[in-house]
Specification:
By secondary structure, this protein is an alpha/beta fold. Helices cover about 30% and strands about 20% of the residues. It is built from 8 helices and 10 strands. It is elongated and about 55 Å long.
Length: about 260
């Protein structure tokens, strides 16, 4: 049996209760690069690292599928632990297909997606009455590098979220400007969101490349483009809540049956 679990966008206690319980019942946990390792501190499962980072694929997708199937065919309960939500740019499809082809029972436990959570962790509501009534989430990396991204047409009342956007800033910046996005449109780079190392840098689309080179902007980074970014200073709450976040996961463990 394989259980696909979304670990949430950062700190360990952002996982769902169902996802956390699945880890406790597992025999093996195959986990990604951005997982908070304390999630497995209370589990007897064997941890197996199968992480990939941008430009550094230490474990290929084919190898991940092969490992997943091998453990499952041994009769073990395998948890495949993915950052955020497993279905959002997590290559869940290939791993589900491997299970189907090998007649392995599986379930999927959703997680809080970084595509949405990252924005509000920086004090930027992804939608806001009178400012933005829709949003689009786009991966800022393509399988074939150099191709244009699948970016939407400009709308003053919409928010654009670019996942893994730091290293491709020049590509999406030029593409947005060509597509009539205003040069002074607010842009936020949110690095290592929902963790104690979170940093937020705010500027404009015209200055996005310079923003991406700021020392605070590290990978992984999410980019938010749109008028809602102007609310960052007004609604920023993260820095003031660090002390309670530090204690949060311990309280979560104490309260979890």
């Amino acid at each position: 049996r394989v259980t696909f679990v979304g670990a949430g966008p950062g700190e360990a206690d952002l996982i769902t209760l169902r996802g956390y319980r699945a880890i406790q019942r597992a025999d093996v946990v195959l986990y990604d690069n951005l997982i908070d390792h304390t999630l497995m501190d209370e589990s007897d499962a064997e941890p197996v690292y199968v992480g990939k980072r941008c430009g550094v694929h230490s474990v290929t997708q084919e190898k991940i599928c092969e490992t997943l199937i091998r453990y499952a065919l041994e009769g073990l309960h395998v948890v495949r632990l993915k950052g955020g939500d497993p279905s959002v740019f997590g290559r869940l499809g290939e791993e589900l297909e491997a299970c189907v082809q090998n007649s392995i029972i599986f379930e999927v436990i959703p997680g809080v997606s970084s595509a949405i959570a990252t924005s509000m962790s920086a004090g930027i509501p992804i939608t806001h009455r009178g400012i933005a009534d829709s949003f689009t989430v786009v991966t800022a990396h393509k399988k074939s590098e150099g191709k244009e991204l699948n970016l939407p047409s400009y709308s003053a009342s919409s928010t654009l979220v670019l996942l893994m956007g730091k290293s491709t800033t020049l590509i999406w910046q030029e593409q947005l400007l060509r597509n009539d996005y205003p040069p002074d449109l607010p842009v936020a780079f949110i690095s290592r969101a929902c963790t104690q190392d979170q940093k937020v840098v705010v500027g404009t689309l015209e200055g996005a490349l310079e923003l991406s080179r700021e020392p605070q902007v590290k990978t992984p980074s999410t980019v938010v483009v749109g008028e809602v970014v102007r609310l960052h200073d007004r609604y920023s709450w993260f820095e003031a809540d660090q002390e309670s976040m530090d204690a949060g996961f311990n309280l979560f463990l104490e309260a979890t049956p």
